[in-house]
Structures are given as C-alpha cells and as structure tokens.
Amino acid sequence: MRLLLVEDDNHVAAALSAMLSKHGFEVAHARSGEEALQALLPDSGAPFGVVLLDLGLPDQDGFEVCGKIRKRTATPVIMVTARADVRSRIHGLNLGADDYVVKPYDTMELLARIHAVSRRTAAHDPGHGPEESPDGSHPPLRLGPVTIELPTRQVSVNGTTVSLTRKEFDLLALLAQRPGVVFRREQIISEVWRTSWEGTGRTLEVHIASLRSKLRMPALIETVRGVGYRLVAPAG
Positions modified as 4-aspartylphosphate (predicted)? Predict the structure, then answer.
C-alpha cells in the first residue's frame, strides 16, 4: 500500500517511514500542507491508500488541509497529533478524518488503525471487495485446519463443522481477514457489536474464550496485552 506521510519534522518522519516500510508500506513524505495537496493530484502517480496527517504544519493548519483533501479525494485520512482534547478530535472527524491518533502512540496501534481504515474503505468500494472466484462466489478463508465460509457463515476445523453464535462468527471473521494484525479492543467492539467500548469489555473477553474453546485451538487468537487481539494463522 502507498501511504502519504504529512509531517514537517524530518526526524519524526524518518523514524516513522522506516517503521512503515518495514511493515510493507511504500511511504511518500510531504513536509507541508501544499506538498501534501500536490502529491494527491490525480496525475501525481499511483493513488495512496492512506494519508497520515500531522496537524502542526508550517504553511497551514492541518485541519484546513484535511478539509481540502476531503474535497478532492476519498483517500482515508488519519490525523496524527499531540492535540488530545475532545473538541479537536470532534472537529477533525467532522472535517472528514477517518481516525484520530494522539501522540505519543504505540506503533502497533497505529498500524492496526491504518489497516482498519483501509479495510473499511475497501468494504465500501465495489472494486476492492473480497476476491471472488470465477463463478462470482467468495472463496473460503483457510487458516491451517480452520476453514471459514463467509457467504454461508460456516466454520470447520479439519473438516468438522463448528457451531458458532452470530457474534462469535463475526468476531472470528474480522480477525481472520487480517491474520497477524492487532485489532484494538475498542475497534472490535465497534465493528462487531456496533457500540462503544464502555461496559462491553467483559463481553468481548467471554466471546474470545468461547471461540478458543469451541475451535479447540487456544493459541489461534493471541491476546496482545494492553491493546487487543490478533489471529495467529496455524501451520498445516
């Protein structure tokens, strides 16, 4: 995925670019709002999958840049800033930002948020949905002995069907579509339960424990302490 990093601090940009490149991103660096807007012009090369936008830019306020970006492209925008107050977050989201990350942040959380916004964008883009078979059906997700049939919502382990509740299936399918990616607890609650984290944390823990038990694969879903969960694809 091509990613546009809008950051005026060269030291911060260098460190972040190195981390993102290590995780498979092709990073372009813009040092100002104008550079960012020029990079997003249609004739500026292959499109970007995500824009990481710092708000403290030298030529114009990051909020203003976000508004201009949203007028010319639907590319997901993640604001990355030290402004932690609620009003700034609300203002950024109202301008069209897809997410808002406060510095300092955990790099794995930032990666999870990048994958989350790109996945949500793909889900709303008919040209970038799940890969289809020649007959138009979606192929099953295969993770070692685990097979997940998305259209029929069926799960099997070594050919034996495993009965899951609706939420258990939704949770497993979410994690399985991005093996190895850490999903934040808040993100899982939002996407599976369509609600906020408050008061729902225990429900998530119970569903994770139930999935591990029903699949008889306790190591399949790994707990990332203090962040969330990720699916570890088994061998074979």
Answer: 54
pTM over 0.85: no
What do you get for the CA distance between the two ends of the chain, in Å? 28
Q: Are the C-beta atoms of 232 and 179 separated by less than 8 Å?
A: yes
**Sheet with 228-231: strands ordered across:** 183-184, 228-231, 221-224
| pLDDT tens by residue, 159-205 | 999 999 888 998 999 999 888 888 888 888 877 876 654 555 578 88
